[in-house]
Amino acid sequence: MQSNIARSALTVAAFAACGLAQAQSSVTVYGIVSTDYVHATNTPTGKVNKIEPGRVNPARLGFKGSEDLGGGLSAVFNLESAIGPDTGAAGAPFWGRGANVGLSSSMLGTVTAGRHWNINDDMLGNFFVFGGFAVFNFTGFGFTSDLVNNSVKYVSPNLGGLTVEALVGAGEGSSTTPRTVEVGGVYAIGPVKAGLTYHEAKRVGLVNKLTSGGVAYSIGSVTVRGGYSSADNEYDDYSLVAGAYKAAAYDIGADFGFGPAAVSVDYVARDLKSSSNDSHFFRVLGKYNLSKRTQVNANVVAMKNKGTATESFYGLAAGAKSQNVFTLGLSHSF
């Protein structure tokens, strides 16, 4: 009798152990602490010299985790907050850089719900230079890298070099939060990478459409790339009237690696259709890794406006003015 009881207890313990082994979970705490020294000309208060949170590697604190549910399926989550090392302030909303939970399958892909970085942010960084001074600074092109509230996002597994994503943001009746739909894909084969994305958002009778794409070619430590984005802001009767506009933006750039150092050179332009009010900037970005986690970086950016264009990085108020920016930053990741 006692041996039967012992065998039963061992059987229950074995099943319990198998269940615990199957349901393995992990949580990772990660982040970046970064600051920049900034010098900028032609701001509303004249020249500016200040310390601000890093733009190349934005400061953040995040938690991400997964639980193995068996059969190649996992539960996943991500929470990420912006932080301001220059003042110690937290971002608003606190989890403003992402807050989502979902399921991930090694065969079928990942579906999450919450606040997400959009598909453009995932894909267009292959063709446009990002990191603070980029195409998303131009009016009408903020959605080349942005976050979407109340959204569901799907990311496919790698399908022979092709990755496909889709995102739907409900808007949930808000006059300021648009109903958003995005789809996109990136295909990589050998040294070539190409991608295409489409974004559409509707709010208060206004329809914002953004079609973007690019190509990149890598040879050793050198990558040559080009990105193009077309913005079409219309009223919901699809007529182009006062307050709406059509514009195009493009980035022609190259990245060079030199061991622990890297340099990116870019020409980024905005063309407002049927108008001479255009803008462009040149940017040189340098990075040097002091270690696996610590980096020094610097930007030299020269913005030029034509006609009555008022594009800027630091509050340029008047048209047809130039703005020059220099930054020197330090970042540490953990």
UniProtKB/TrEMBL annotation:
<dbReference type="InterPro" id="IPR002299">
    <property type="entry name" value="Porin_Neis"/>
</dbReference>
<keyword id="KW-0812">Transmembrane</keyword>
<keyword id="KW-0406">Ion transport</keyword>
<feature type="domain" description="Porin">
    <location>
        <begin position="9"/>
        <end position="307"/>
    </location>
</feature>
<dbReference type="InterPro" id="IPR023614">
    <property type="entry name" value="Porin_dom_sf"/>
</dbReference>
<dbReference type="InterPro" id="IPR033900">
    <property type="entry name" value="Gram_neg_porin_domain"/>
</dbReference>
<keyword id="KW-0472">Membrane</keyword>
<dbReference type="Pfam" id="PF13609">
    <property type="entry name" value="Porin_4"/>
</dbReference>
<dbReference type="InterPro" id="IPR050298">
    <property type="entry name" value="Gram-neg_bact_OMP"/>
</dbReference>
<keyword id="KW-0732">Signal</keyword>
<feature type="signal peptide">
    <location>
        <begin position="1"/>
        <end position="23"/>
    </location>
</feature>
<keyword id="KW-0626">Porin</keyword>
<protein>
    <submittedName>
        <fullName>Porin</fullName>
    </submittedName>
</protein>
<comment type="subunit">
    <text>Homotrimer.</text>
</comment>
<keyword id="KW-1134">Transmembrane beta strand</keyword>
<keyword id="KW-0813">Transport</keyword>
<keyword id="KW-0998">Cell outer membrane</keyword>
